[in-house]
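Figure caption, in words: inputs first, then the predicted bound structure.
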Amino acid sequence: MVRSCTKCIYDDNVPGITYDEKGVCNYCRQHEQLEAEYPTGDAGMKKLREMAALIKRSGKGKKYDCVIGISGGCDSSYLLHLAKKELGLRPLAAHFDNTWNSKTAVENIDIMLSKLDIDLWTYVMDNDEWNDLAKSMLKASVPEIDALSDIALTTTLYMAAAKFNVKYILNGHSFRTEGITPINWFYFDGKYIASIQKEFGTRKIDKYPNLWLGRWMKWLVMDIKRLRPLYYMDYRKEDVKAFLSKEYGWKWYGGHHLENRYTAFNHYLLDAKFKRDLRYVEFSALIRSGQMTRAEAIEEIKKPQPFPGELITEVKKRLGMGDAEYDAIMKLPLRSAKDYKTYRPTFKAMRGFFWLMYKTNRIPKSFYIKYCF
Ligand SMILES: [Zn+2]
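Bound structure (zinc ion present):
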């Protein structure tokens, strides 16, 4: 018998799950704590206005007062609207182009930026180097192939902020829709990527914007802060999608985080090889924030995920892999960050420094808790 949470759809298969006397899981309780910490409605709006006032003050006399990462997805598109139209900020949009963007994503980026009259700073990745790194992550047989995009985007945002002397980076994350990833599912850091590339790659990291600890510390000391404004909103995905379509002509790309072909492949790989269906995370979040019922989620999760059939063919072609090599990679024993060198021991040793960074809004609390212990 697999026991399941009485509120969300997390069950015994989720690492680190515990249940209280009402049968509610620890992840649901974590969500409640976040809700208490980040109020919405009038109280949330007040927090957002205070945040905007600080950002405006820091940007006096500068061309931009904040940097916003944009993917063409729903959250970052909405964040641009919120920042400029609702809060009166002067954002610079920054984009990391891993050359796997979907056509819809590119159109969404164009449409949002032109209608809001926001400048864009893009870091375009060298295609061959990206493919070599992507192949190394696959050969390493770890579940974090998307760490490549995530780390590179973070670095890109810092680079843009440092270049234009901007002190605030705004992030479109909302725990109300993204959810809380089970403990030990994923681990991301710059050294992790570097050690995997050293072992499996055919070239050195050159153009890839890695988040090396040295440069990251330099940006932290420069007092560049990362904030998550959507935490203060009752962020409802369906309403936001409808709003963006109506107001801007923005288009839905047909699946959570499927705006990028490589990210779409990541979802497929996690499901097929690692038996991790990311919809559990998303649906559970939507249940906790009242945007989906548990019964709806149970029905929906039974349906196979809508992976475009040509995706695997495209990945093989772009990464220059034959069927035999690809099949061998899919059959490799599963490995994790524990099998490779990472910054984790360093992060733990520097716990005091990161505590200070968290307390001064320079890193998210989740980083401090997850990486420094
Ligand atoms: Zn739960």
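The chain has 18 helices and five strands.
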